[in-house]
Amino acid sequence: MRRIWPVVAVLVLGSCGVRPSGVTDAGRAPTGVAHGVTLYFVDAHERLRPQFRRTYRLGTVPEAVSLLLFGVGDSDLHTEIASVAGPRILATTGPGLIQLRVPLALREVTPLGIDQIVCTALGVHVQSGGSRRTRVQVRFTLSTHESEKRRTCPLIR
Amino acid sequence: MTGRLWPRGLRARLSLTFVLVTVLGAAAAAWSSAGSASTALVTSTQRRLTESIAGQIGATTPQLTYPPDQAALDRLRAAVGANTLVTYRDLRSADGAETGLVTEALHTAVRTRDRLVTQRVTASGRPWLLIGTPIVITGPDGARTPSGIEVYAVRDLTGVERQVDDLAWSAAGTAALALPPAVLLALLAARSVLRPVRELRDTARRLAAGDLAARSPPQGADELAELTVTVNEMAESLQTSMAAMRRMQADARRFAADVSHELRTPLSTLTAVMEVLATAAAEMEADARESAQMAITETHRLVRLVEDLMEVSRFDAGTARLRLEEVEVGNAVRDCLRARGWLDQVDLAAPEEIPLRLDPRRLDVIVANLVGNALRHGGPPVRVSVSATREQVRIEVGDGGPGLPEHVLPHVFERFYKADAARVRTPGSGLGLAIALENARLHGGDLTAGNASGGGARFVLRLPRKREDG
């Protein structure tokens, strides 16, 4: 009978404290570093094409979209987005959705142009650790139902 | 003594077992819940810490120059917080003394697994959480490649440990709280179990003491109730058979009493006739006189037998009464011997005066019987000695004969017991010693038979000097 009490004490006090453990997995490693950013333009055959820009860092979604709106530069690719002066991009990242506010009206971009914006934004999002299933909402300056569409990039599935 | 200790032992054992089981159960429950709670606490704290670090790294990396220089590593390290080590190839940015705790196993895991890993260690008595992770490059297509940057962070778990300790102590407290109600319940349970046991014990005691009407009411329908019913049934059948036996005994005694009573009247007539016959015997023929003498002797024997039977019946019926008088024992014995003309055949030793309250007639019966037996069956010299201590008076009757055989000793006081089967025709009724013993007992004394060391039978009558009811 008397031998039970130490056992009880050991049981009660045994749960005390935080015990050391071995190496345990705790999830995916963080990501986000990159040699540069990938923008999407259109080639002569009206196909989306990625273009890598060596910026020595990934940067943010608005930065990448601003870079996209800035133009293709010296290349055989072209952009289907009208050039705008002093582009200001606002991006809001929610769960499963990136809302992009672009200083463009719907008539200033072709559908391929919208894909350019969506792919560039989604590319940065994925490279900084986001999910590839995230949808992108491109909100134009003039109110249109196209602003409400949740889009995906045909190149990033 | 054991009868009184046993239930106490049972109660103690019952209570102890009950309390032990309850407290152990409470302790086990409290311990297990405290254990799972502390595991959950540690896990959630770990997750919070790792998520926060992963979040801090993830928020910083898009702005981080790659490949990084020392300044970039310092910036990343500052973003993660204190006690952090960031390495990239040969570059290294460390802050805080505890970064030395990072184990080789963690380093290896970070380099080989491309996953965020954690490890708990204890250093200088404090628990630490080591978090290690590589930073990977994700391509636009989702392909992950290692970047070569590794981040190690060391976080203190002392706060969690304190919470876990609190949980354990509160678990112990809960278990301790269970103790008083457990004791109370145990006592109640023991009482409910032991009450019927105690009642049963009392009933059994009363039965053993002769109260055959004792019963205990069965309560409930458990094993104890069954036992109670069984004991009651046993008592019932015992009572029935005892009653039957007593009735038969009483019938037999009454029959003996009736018979002796009925015989008395014809016997007194017969005695009167015999007296007439005795006076006429002198003028009879020799053989007729012999027959008459025999008839007279046998009639006297018959009268004696009937008287003894009636005396025994009185003892059996419990109607024998003492007529106490203050007498001097030595004188009483001497009177008894003198009345029967035995004074010259018997050595009487009564050196001191012993006054005693007793029934002189009954003492006379006892002494006459013992001395008569000694004279008749034993050999001379017959000695009677009267002595006294503070508690009792002792009258010893011994003879110089062969003594009583061993196999006879236990039976000498039985009614109609004949030591020698062949010696049937003795003048005694066969009831003399039985009546003597009853008389001794009526006085609160005792009569014992034995053999003296030098041979010869020895009967000892002991009478108490102070009677309980006198």
UniProtKB/TrEMBL annotation, chain A:
It comes from the Bacteria. This is Lipoprotein. The lineage of its organism: Bacteria, Bacillati, Actinomycetota, Actinomycetes, Streptosporangiales.
From TrEMBL, chain B:
Pfam families: HAMP, HATPase_c, HisKA. Residues 258-467 form the Histidine kinase domain. Residues 1-29 form the signal peptide. GO terms for molecular function: kinase activity. Residues 191-243 form the HAMP domain. InterPro entries: HAMP_dom (IPR003660), HATPase_C_sf (IPR036890), HATPase_dom (IPR003594), His_kinase_dom (IPR005467), HisK_dim/P_dom (IPR003661), HisK_dim/P_sf (IPR036097), Sig_transdc_His_kin-like_C (IPR004358), TCS_sensor_his_kinase (IPR050428). Its EC number is 2.7.13.3. The keyword Iron does not apply. It comes from the Bacteria. It catalyses: ATP + protein L-histidine = ADP + protein N-phospho-L-histidine. Keywords: Kinase, Membrane, Phosphoprotein, Signal, Transferase, Transmembrane, Transmembrane helix, Two-component regulatory system. It is found in: Cell membrane. PROSITE patterns: HAMP (PS50885), HIS_KIN (PS50109). This is histidine kinase. It comes from Actinoallomurus spadix.
